[in-house]
Design goal:
The chain has 296 residues and is an all-alpha fold. It contains 14 helices and no strands. The chain is elongated and about 50 Å long. It binds a DNA duplex (21 and 21 nucleotides) through helix 3 and helix 6.
Length: 296
DNA sequence: AATATTTACAACCGCGGGAGA
DNA sequence: CTCTCCCGCGGTTGTAAATAT
């Protein structure tokens, strides 16, 4: 990971704990946006924070990173969680992969504070309740349960997604809009953008199949769609944040996993210069992200 | 209005796995 | 092979806000 002991801080400063102040958030955000996180243990040193790397990482992933969808869970999201929890047990990170913009921590918390009770109460009238065989031990069980019966269209499509490939289960595409339940999903593959970019299959296929095909429109149309998705999302920069921007990507992956808008095999780099017009946010915009991408 | 209790969510902790030295 | 470091995950705890008494 290029982040071994040489990068390690020599003396350990006392680490602050507890809630993050706005100033700390600011520092961390600025630093990561500008430099990327690289090795998390060096982030607090370089960013001038008295936190440990782990804490920084968590704060970034769960709260600061762009693309997080804050606020109430939609009923569809709720259903998805219930369904996936039924399938996977407490595999929050896996469940989170199917809920773009939501973090595993958020989902976990939501489960414990809302859904668990809801299911416990029986909530007979709802689909959610039917998802479970309502023996109470299901609820806290960490092991995935066998599917006994699941007949909602959503469930089937979920199953399809999960069965289709090991990759598919982990990579969901940025959805183009927060549309209500759609029986027929977008024809686009369900992949996170960044994950899509980092797929092995992408490496092997993309340059001929997508990015560097003679018909470059293919890639550009994907990018268009992606960007459209980003901006259609109309992240209200509520609370002075940019959380809703890029809601459907997995921005942590974007930052951490060498996101490159380039053709990896052709050798000649094909960067895509997204232009987002005015600075939507002085601290973060696509350009600054792209700059990060360029530099790493 | 003051206090106690509950709720919701942010953050911490510990563990396991992967990778490099 | 062992050690060390880092990352990611899931469980748990802490705390602020909301609600009840």
């Amino acid at each position: 990971m290029g982040c071994k002991s040489s990068d390690k801080p020599k003396q350990k400063p006392k680490h602050r704990k507890g809630l993050w102040s706005p100033d700390e958030d600011q520092r961390l955000r600025n630093y990561v946006l500008k430099h990327g996180h690289g090795c998390w243990s060096s982030v607090p040193i370089n960013a001038g924070l008295q936190r440990n790397g782990k804490s920084c990482r968590l704060r970034w992933i769960n709260y600061l990173r762009p693309g997080l969808k804050r606020g109430l869970f939609s009923s569809q999201e709720e259903e998805t969680i219930l369904t996936l929890h039924r399938l996977l047990g407490n595999k929050w990170s896996q469940i989170a992969q199917h809920l773009p913009g939501r973090t595993d921590n958020e989902i976990k918390n939501y489960w414990h504070s809302h859904l668990k009770k809801k299911v416990l109460k029986g909530d007979q009238g709802t689909k959610e309740a039917n998802v479970y065989n309502t023996t109470s031990d299901n609820l806290d069980n960490n092991s995935p349960k066998k599917i006994t019966m699941m007949q909602t269209p959503d469930f089937e499509s979920l199953l399809m997604n999960m069965e289709n490939s090991s990759t598919d289960a982990d990579q969901s595409v940025p959805r183009m809009s927060e549309s209500p339940k759609q029986p027929n999903r977008s024809s686009l593959p369900k992949l996170m953008f960044a994950e899509w970019l980092s797929l092995d299959s992408f490496s092997s296929l993309s340059c001929e199949g997508i990015m560097s095909s003679k018909d470059q429109n293919v890639s550009s149309s994907f990018q268009d769609n992606f960007m459209q998705g980003c901006f259609l999302n109309e992240g209200t920069f509520g609370n002075g944040e940019y959380r809703n921007l890029l809601s459907y990507a997995s921005p942590d992956d974007m930052f951490s996993s060498q996101l490159k808008f380039e053709c990896q095999s052709s050798g000649n780099e094909q960067f895509v210069d997204f232009s987002c017009g005015e600075d939507i946010c002085s601290e973060f915009n696509m350009r600054s992200e792209l700059r990060y991408i360029y530099e790493h």
